[in-house]
């Protein structure tokens, strides 16, 4: 690819880590100002990838280039990297300002200047009053901001965030996420973010890389990944019904894994191996076979019902498995309970179809 | 009769569970406490209180006390200097034979101190395996010097420090050290500014233990350093020798040692380890 | 307490019955000897000899510090013979219990300078102990050999600055054996018991501090006859040879 210029990759890495019973092999490129989210289930290798970038895990093979400089074998303390750890790991024996000044001090900044710099960063993070406090006296959200300030204090080219929201309760997560987004937008470098929460990835990242079993299974913009998942994991994560099959015109015959023999009708004509996906709220349920509009109608059996936000998610089985989101009123009207047989309908225009 | 006894038994057991006094634990605990405290009380009962003042002010007691405090403190300093890195090595590196090394480190804990003194003499004595060369090349002979007292105390007391610090090091979340590394800290800086402060309570507890053990050291000291007032005669040695001539004087010395150690332990624990 | 009080006379009665029928019958008789610890080897050897000469007799020893043994005797312990390392201790038993057939001084022990076999400091007299660079250990003044050392040094007018005051005579000897000290003042018997490990250097002033070993038959002991025979054995040419071999001097 092109080198130099605003689009040049700050991070260019090929991470290969082999351990007994585990292997990671993934390529990452992150441009200036870009935020890449590594999304994946537990044990997929997200954290290992992040630790390898930081120099905390040695590579079995591959390379790590930051701004074109090879840091593959550089120890952690000599990489232009700042890292925010999952539970922040603020040094409990140091005050907040000492925590933030720690990095600059280690990199040779005189004590007074390091302290000045740390105080400025704390002010930016809205933590002016907490400089002398111990980290233990801070709330989770405040700790996260201190951890970010501490990582930024070393003026890194590459910022690494390991599950930055995981330690927060759901209540504070929303506001902290918004603040983090602002801070990341202002950061003049490349950011890699590890999360298992798709919402984090959607809100914070410019691009999402889905890791499963140590390998990249999908990469793209958050919207793209959400709309067109390529694995069951991502589909479940973003709450989409995902099928695989062979398309011919506007008809998709589903593969054995998705529902042998079932046929999906889509709006635009395609050919070959495809994924077909539609969101649960696009599914309508009927006690009787609907007469009119939907092109896709299947008789299915209710397998389970659970509340899902302000709606109710209904699990259906039969020729294919479908999740449907309906209102509580509709649930009452249809008198649905496990074992009840219903008709499920999806409009062809609601079905996203893309090559596998 | 049996009928009427039921409600009463019920009431009594109710009161017992409310009071929550587990006598099965309290009785042996009190017995143990008595066993530890009574001998000390005996010292107080038998103390020649009338002659106490004059004896306390004698140069002999002062010399022995100062020597004991000085050497125990020096031994603790040496133990910190050597023992903390040793504990780090044991806790943090996976060198081959580490288990054997740890066992060796703890040997002085179970070895009779006299045996330790003999071993030191055989190695560091004027005629010892190593001491011989020291003597040949420099004319310096370690036994019978104050330095020998410190060496003997370090030998018996350092394991306490190493064990304590190693335990503390194992308890530290190593990810804090990784965090420091990503911030640009070298291994030495990580150790100095992160690891060490985080294990500080363990180090202090170990140092207090080490100091106490050094203060009470007798066997290895008398074997390796000999007995010379003002130079190698620490309080325990003075107590032992006085016991053969004048038990009263020995009791006075013991009381001084007791008072000083209790005072120091109380002060140290209150101030640094935060345990009352 | 009550049991032992009852038991003691009973034992004596049984012993008396056993020996009553015939004087040549000695089966099951026991001679009890309390002796200073420094006599352990000498008396141990003589004990075997005694048992050979007196079939059926067992010699039982109690070796300990003289004063500890005297204390036991005064407080009612039963023994036939008492041998102490000094006359003062024997006097305590004479006053407290009573001693017949003696007390008599049967051996003497004097101080010697112990030096390593190669005598690196070239010590040949008491004066040499005061020389610069000679590492001397002395017994602490709290213990008997220390008191004796002090006496001879004072008599000789020699001021010795030791490197260490040892807690007992064996500890002082060990320093020399290990080569950590150039010389020590110890008893002649200790030098001999160390075998070739140390050399003994005699000095004329040793006569100033002589330990007299005294022996006697304790009043009230169950075997006064055997006790007398034991003392005869110690005083015999054979006994004297064992004593001198061990380093004791005869009175």
Descriptive account of the structure:
The complex is a heterotrimer of chains A (356), B (276) and C (251). Chain A has 356 residues and is α+β, with helices and mostly antiparallel strands. Chain A folds into two domains: 9-232, P-loop containing nucleotide triphosphate hydrolases (Rossmann fold), CATH 3.40.50; 239-355, OB fold (Dihydrolipoamide Acetyltransferase, E2P). Chain A has ten helices and 18 strands. In chain A, a hairpin with a 2-residue loop joins β4 (61-66) and β5 (69-70). By secondary structure, chain B is mostly helical. Chain B has one domain (59-274): MetI-like (MetI-like fold, Orthogonal Bundle). Helix content of chain B is 81%, strand content 0%. The longest helix of chain B is centred in the N-terminal third of the chain and has 34 residues, at 59-92. Chain C has 251 residues and is an alpha/beta fold. Chain C is built from nine helices and nine strands. In chain C, α5 (144-156) links the parallel β5 and β6. In chain C, α3 (66-74) packs parallel to α4. Chain C is elongated and about 60 Å long. Residues 1-25 of chain C have low confidence and may be disordered. Chains in contact: A-B, B-C. Chains B and C meet through α13 of B and β6 of C. Chain B: This is Molybdenum transport system permease.
Provide a brief overview of the structure.
Chain C: Molybdate binds at residues 38, 66, 169, 187. The complex is a heterotrimer of chains A (356), B (276) and C (251). Chain A has helices at residues 46-54, 96-106, 111-124, 140-152, 170-186, 198-204, 222-227, 232-238, 256-259, 328-334; strands at 9-19, 22-31, 35-39, 61-66, 69-70, 81-84, 158-162, 190-195, 207-212, 215-220, 241-254, 263-278, 283-286, 296-308, 311-317, 322-326, 341-346, 352-355.
What's the structural blueprint in terms of helices and strands?
The complex is a heterotrimer of chains A (356), B (276) and C (251).
Chain A: E1 9-19, E2 22-31, E3 35-39, H1 46-54, E4 61-66, E5 69-70, E6 81-84, H2 96-106, H3 111-124, H4 140-152, E7 158-162, H5 170-186, E8 190-195, H6 198-204, E9 207-212, E10 215-220, H7 222-227, H8 232-238, E11 241-254, H9 256-259, E12 263-278, E13 283-286, E14 296-308, E15 311-317, E16 322-326, H10 328-334, E17 341-346, E18 352-355
Parallel strand pairs in A: 3-8, 3-9, 6-7, 7-8
Antiparallel strand pairs in A: 1-2, 1-4, 4-5, 9-10, 11-12, 12-18, 13-17, 14-15, 14-17, 15-16
Helix pairs in contact in A: 2-3, 2-4, 4-5
Chain B: H1 2-19, H2 23-46, H3 49-56, H4 59-92, H5 98-110, H6 113-124, H7 131-138, H8 146-171, H9 175-182, H10 187-198, H11 200-215, H12 219-224, H13 235-245, H14 247-273
Helix pairs in contact in B: 2-14, 4-8, 4-11, 5-8, 8-11, 9-10, 11-14, 13-14
Chain C: H1 2-19, E1 29-36, H2 40-53, E2 57-64, H3 66-74, E3 81-84, H4 87-96, E4 99-115, E5 136-139, H5 144-156, E6 164-166, H6 169-177, E7 183-187, H7 188-193, E8 199-201, E9 210-218, H8 224-235, H9 237-245
Parallel strand pairs in C: 1-2, 1-3, 5-6, 5-7
Antiparallel strand pairs in C: 3-9, 4-7, 4-8, 4-9
């Amino acid at each position: 690819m092109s080198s130099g210029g605003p689009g040049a990759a700050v991070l260019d890495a090929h991470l290969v880590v082999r351990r007994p019973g585990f292997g990671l092999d993934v390529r990452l490129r992150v441009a200036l100002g870009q935020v890449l989210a590594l999304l994946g289930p537990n044990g997929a290798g997200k954290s290992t990838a992040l630790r390898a970038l930081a120099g905390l895990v040695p590579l079995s093979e591959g390379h790590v280039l930051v701004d074109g400089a090879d840091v593959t074998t550089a120890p952690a303390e000599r990489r232009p990297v700042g890292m925010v750890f999952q539970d922040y790991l603020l040094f409990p024996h140091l005050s907040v300002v000492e925590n933030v000044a720690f990095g600059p001090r280690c990199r040779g900044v005189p004590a007074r200047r390091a302290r000045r710099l740390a105080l400025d960063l704390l002010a930016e993070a809205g933590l002016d009053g907490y400089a002398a406090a111990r980290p233990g006296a801070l709330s989770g959200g405040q700790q996260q901001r201190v951890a970010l300030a501490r990582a930024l204090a070393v003026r890194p080219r590459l910022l690494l965030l390991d599950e930055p929201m995981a330690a927060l309760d759901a209540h504070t997560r929303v506001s902290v996420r918004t603040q983090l987004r602002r801070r990341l937008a202002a950061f003049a470098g490349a950011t890699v973010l590890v999360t298992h929460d798709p919402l984090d990835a959607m809100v914070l990242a410019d691009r999402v890389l889905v890791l499963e079993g140590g390998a990249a299974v999908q990469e793209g913009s958050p919207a793209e990944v959400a709309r067109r998942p390529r694995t069951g994991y991502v589909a479940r994560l973003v709450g989409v019904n995902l099928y695989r099959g062979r398309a011919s015109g506007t008809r998709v015959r589903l593969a054995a894994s998705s529902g042998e023999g079932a046929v999906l009708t889509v709006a635009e004509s395609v050919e070959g191996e495809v994924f077909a996906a539609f969101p649960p709220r696009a599914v309508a349920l009927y006690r009787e076979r609907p007469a009119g509009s939907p092109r896709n109608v299947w008789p299915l059996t209710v397998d389970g019902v659970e509340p899902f936000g302000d709606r109710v998610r209904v699990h259906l089985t039969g020729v294919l498995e479908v999740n449907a989101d309906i209102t509580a009123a509709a649930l009452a009207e249809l008198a649905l309970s496990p074992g009840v047989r219903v008709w499920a309908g999806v409009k062809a225009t609601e079905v996203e179809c893309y090559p596998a | 009769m049996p009928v009427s006894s039921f409600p009463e038994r019920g009431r009594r057991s109710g009161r017992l569970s409310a009071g929550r006094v587990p006598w099965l634990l309290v009785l042996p605990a009190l017995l143990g406490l008595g066993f530890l405290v009574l001998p000390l009380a005996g010292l107080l009962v038998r103390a020649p209180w009338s002659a106490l003042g004059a004896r306390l002010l004698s140069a002999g007691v002062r010399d022995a006390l100062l020597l004991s405090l000085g050497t125990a403190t020096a031994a603790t300093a040496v133990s910190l200097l050597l023992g903390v890195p040793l504990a780090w090595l044991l806790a943090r590196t996976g060198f081959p034979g580490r288990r054997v090394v740890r066992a060796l480190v703890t040997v002085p804990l179970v070895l009779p101190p006299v045996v330790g003194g003999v071993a030191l003499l055989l190695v560091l004595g004027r005629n010892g395996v190593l001491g011989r060369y020291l003597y040949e090349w420099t004319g310096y002979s370690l036994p019978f010097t104050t330095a020998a007292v410190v060496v003997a105390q370090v030998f018996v007391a350092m394991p306490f420090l190493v064990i304590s610090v190693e335990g503390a090091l194992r308890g530290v979340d190593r990810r804090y050290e990784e965090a420091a590394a990503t911030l640009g800290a070298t291994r030495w800086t990580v150790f100095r500014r992160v690891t060490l402060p985080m294990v500080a309570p363990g180090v202090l507890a170990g140092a207090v233990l080490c100091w106490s053990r050094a203060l009470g050291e007798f066997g290895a000291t008398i074997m390796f350093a000999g007995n010379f007032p003002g130079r190698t005669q620490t309080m325990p040695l003075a107590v032992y020798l006085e016991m053969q001539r004048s038990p009263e004087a020995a009791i006075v010395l013991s009381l001084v040692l007791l008072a000083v150690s209790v005072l120091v332990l109380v002060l140290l624990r209150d101030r640094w380890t935060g345990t009352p | 307490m009550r049991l032992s009080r009852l038991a003691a006379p009973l034992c004596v009665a049984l012993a008396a019955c056993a020996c009553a029928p015939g004087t040549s019958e000695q089966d099951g008789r026991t001679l009890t000897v309390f002796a200073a610890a420094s006599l352990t080897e000498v008396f141990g050897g003589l004990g075997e000899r005694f048992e050979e000469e007196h079939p059926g007799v067992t010699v039982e020893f109690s070796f300990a510090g003289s004063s500890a043994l005297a204390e036991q005797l005064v407080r009612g312990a039963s023994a036939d013979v008492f041998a102490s390392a000094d006359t003062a201790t024997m006097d305590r038993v004479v006053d407290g219990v009573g001693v017949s057939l003696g007390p008599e001084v049967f051996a003497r022990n004097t101080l010697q300078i112990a030096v390593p076999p190669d005598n690196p400091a070239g010590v040949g007299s008491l004066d040499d102990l005061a020389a610069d660079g000679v590492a001397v250990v002395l017994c602490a003044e709290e213990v008997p050999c220390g008191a004796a050392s002090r006496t001879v040094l004072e008599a000789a007018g020699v001021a010795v600055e030791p490197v260490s005051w040892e807690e007992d005579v064996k500890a002082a000897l060990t320093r020399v054996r290990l080569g950590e000290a150039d010389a020590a003042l110890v008893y002649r018997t200790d030098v001999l018991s160390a075998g070739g490990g140390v050399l003994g250097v005699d000095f004329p002033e040793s006569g100033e501090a002589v330990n007299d070993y005294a022996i006697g038959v304790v009043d009230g002991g169950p075997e006064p006859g055997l006790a007398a025979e034991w003392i005869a054995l110690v005083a015999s040419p054979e006994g004297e040879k064992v004593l001198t071999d061990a380093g004791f001097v005869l009175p």
